[in-house]
Write a structure and sequence with these properties.
The chain is α+β, with helices and mostly antiparallel strands. It contains 13 helices and ten strands. It has a six-stranded mixed β-barrel. A hairpin with an 8-residue loop joins strand 6 and strand 7. The longest helix is centred in the C-terminal third of the chain and has 44 residues. The two termini are 26 Å apart.
Amino acid sequence: MNIKDLIQFSMQSFKNRKSRVFFTVAGVAIGIAVIVFLISLGYGLQNTILSRITTEEALLSLDVFSPDSASVPLTQDSLQRIGDVENIESISPKATTLAQISHNNLTSEAVVNLVKQDYFNFAGIKTDIGSIFDKGGNQIVVTETIASLLNISKEDLLDKTIEMSIFFEVQDFTSENNTLVSRTLEDSFTVVGILQDSEVSNEIYLHIDDVDSSYIQRFESIKVKVNSQENLEVVRSDLADSGFLVSALSDLAEQANKVFSIIQIVLAIFGIFSLFVAAIGLVNTMTISLLERTNEIGIMRAIGASKGDIQKLFLLEATLIGFMGGVAGVLLGIVGAKFINIILNIIARSLGGASLALFFTPLWFVIFIIISSAFVGFSSGVFPAGKASKLNTLEALRYK
């Protein structure tokens, strides 16, 4: 019996037992849908969180600190030493100081970070609304907290001009003891972007070139971008050997991926239980089908079908049921995930939050789960197929 005949016999059997096949496929589909839903949730949360804490460029960046910032601060000489390390593509220093801001007769304190434009990409920092500043334009990017301190919404603060006094402690090398003297930069700055979040809530970012370089004698940290992922650890080791403390955002991303891998495994285990129940139902269906078709099997054997043909027929039917359940389950899981995501986003927007993609289903997982469901169907049909192939022809013909 060739494969075409086997498929025709299977389709005829499905037509004769529509209700039973439908509910068996539905049982497998529900099990698969639960797995797809849970795993998609795991991947969705992973992508959402990682996209918020890092970018592709951020994964190639390293944070460089001084081992003792009080006695051995990061200076222009430090930038030169770091620049001499091989495989570094670019360097972006960060200097931090305090400032006083005012708008509409309201005054508040703030932390000012003096950085370059590429610092945002290296740090994985994104704006919620607006954009990153341009060089030399007296433009600033602020956190949402700044808007709250000035009693204005972030939407209204965008493109507004605020007054700012920036305070610097500068070492006077002309004095006998190189004493520190205070310098103040007072100017108007335009808000061009509002940040999504920040470690320090009342932060303002200003382009470092908008400030006289003589005011910036030390840096809080320096970000370096490595030219490739392969050289990341090499550069990290070279910088450490040069006496710097080095950390990488990729370490955080790696730890997050490990945590989410564990979460996905736990979610998959819950889903597998439901699939296991569906598999038991499939075995039960195929066993009942065997009893109902005993006489039919006897006739097939009498007209020339071999034991192998009978076994293949039952295995094919079980595999097709598993395959159909897998396809239906994937569709059901994806549609269900999208529906839940729409509902959650409607609720989030009504509460003033941002829309999120909480579910993500990789294509490779869709293919894998469909193949796996077909294999589960095949495995569930092994026992009934074995019993069917071993039936005695004469006893099967007499069976009623």
